[in-house]
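Before the break, one more example. Copy the sequence into your notebook; we will annotate it together after we see the structure.
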Amino acid sequence: MKESDNLLLRINDRMDSFSKGQRLIARFILEQYDKAAYITAAKLGATVGVSESTVVRFASELGYDGYPGMQKELRAMICTKLTATQRIGVASDRMGTGDILQSVLDADMENIRQSLLQIDREEFLKIADAIVDAKHIYVLGVRSSASLASFLSFYLNLITPNVRHVQTSTASELFEQIFRIEKGDVLIAISFPRYSTRTLKAIDYAKNRGATVIGITDSASSPIAHSADMSLIAKSDMVSFADSLVAPLSVINALVVAISMKKKTEVVESLESLEAIWDEYKVYEKFSSER
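Here is what the structure looks like once it is written out:
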């Protein structure tokens, strides 16, 4: 059972031992955990009619260092449990009628900052090395993560010829595209809440075939990271029903740069050849600022 599930169970199991004020907090969290995850201790206290210090003590009694620790677990639960409609409601509560542009961009910047703090630099370099050394590289991302997989595949194809972008709408198509994966190959599996069942099945298949699996996901406790051999963590804390992919894209961009630096000579040769092709077939518009 996931730890995020245990929070609600712990609250429910201990209901009889709580004080009157704590029971008010407990009922609010059990009934509206989506709101509790994004309001301050002071606001939660005011909502149910208790002091801010009572809310903080409530979190401490449940085993957290403070209220933010409990909120973190609630937010992790929201990522995997809320429907798109419920996420719209959370976004409305968080942003209200304020400056939406400011709120969204601030949240994206915070996601990048948190990602930078959490990524293991040694793991990052090991992942780059594994991709460089791979016989074949399979890149998989479905639903909203498909855009990230497409971006990564596009640039990896400019760097090395052994890349396969797994594009699929059904489970059968997925396995048809990866059924030859084997030891010495790498599967890069990208998934963020709500996590894709198809991606997890592909990871299991690739590992059973002896391939190395690299996960790109939002948390070290996610099912993707748990199943992968190595993982890159990029925060994607939601702002609305649309997934925030700014930090994941930034991390993937850093990975592309790291790989290109390791294969600099080959990359330069490939890009020089491509430039000639692009010019010959007029792939890009030639624009001059001179009139």
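Residues 1-5 have pLDDT under 50 and may be disordered. The first strand starts at residue 137 and ends at 141. Try to locate both features in your own notes.
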